[in-house]
Amino acid sequence: MVHAIRIHEHGGPEVLRWEEVEVGEPGPGQVRLRQTAVGLNYIDTYHRSGVYKLPSFPAVIGMEGAGVIEAVGPGVTTLKVGERVAYAANPMGAYAEARLMPEDRLVPLPEWIDDRQAAGMMLQGMTAQFLLRSCYVVQPGDTILVQAAAGGVGLLLCQWAKHLGATVIGTVSTDEKAELAKAHGCDHPIVYTRENFVARVKDITNGQGVPVVYDGVGRTTFMDGLDCLRPRGLMVLFGAASGPVPPLDLQVLAAKGSLYVTRPTLFVYTAKHEDLMASAADLFGAVRAGGVEILVRQTYPLREAAEAHRALESRQTTGSTVLLP
Ligand code: NDP
Predict the structure, then answer these.
(1) Which residues form the Enoyl reductase (ER) domain (predicted)?
(2) Is the domain of 255 the same as that of 159?
(3) Which of 66, 175, 220, 235 has the fewest CB atoms below 10 angstroms from its CB?
């Protein structure tokens, strides 16, 4: 038996319970992983609260972790006992001291990435990777807008986009977050709780607007974000930290300049094994090259996951947060 954080119903952070669970032996194509660090992500709050409904209870939530393989099942050929790996993938179930994982969803870790960094970088980092390199391909000289620029994904987007030669405009809720974003690639932080970010973006781009908006905030920023785009620009809505965006009248996209909108997910962009490995390799390369620093700015014992959820949802965290089993 091991300990895990389970939920028996959707609800607030109080539904997260520290309980004993059975892990069992790995089946064909599976390994058992002893986890040393677990990543906290906004999606965990959607799974907990029911923004994303879970099919059955009790359920162990969590999508990201790092650790050491302690057993391999029949047919596992690419990984061995004692190897360090990390993941950002289905199946859910990361909030545990140990768990089973399919072999083909695990990424071997280079020795220069420690487990906490790995748990703080895989999900948010590969998200930044596909957003900047695939969804819209950021070019040197682009000026882009990143919403919630001091968050987990936000700080990675700012740093990496800067490393790619872009100018980054980013929104944040406080002056402290503005300082942090500025120190990590955000050329023009805008405190959107007191400044009109549409007017500021127009100002900074001499009235042109930006070719792409990366928006993980959702309800409160989406419509104004459309007004920051130049004609034929792309709105990348990748999350809903402030709540889901209501249904959109597509005529709006014509009226605002023949705009494009996409609502991508990491799990589709890394569904094929070769895409997962390529994304992780690109991320590790950007970190190794010094273009992206992994900022694990909060850690909590895994058993105190409820506290971590409260901090994330009340906008108190910056960068990445790691839970320690
Ligand atoms: P963050 O660390 O970015 O935390 C969310 C941030 O959103 C807050 O810090 C806050 O920044 C901002 N925010 C604005 N309004 C609110 C509000 N009402 N309540 C809470 N936060 C608010 O989280 P993550 O880096 O984990 O995730 C960022 C986004 O990316 C999420 O929407 C997440 O779902 C999405 N995501 C999507 C993926 C995909 O595949 N599509 C993969 C990974 C993440 P501030 O105080 O500055 O406003």
Answers:
(1) 11-323
(2) yes
(3) 175
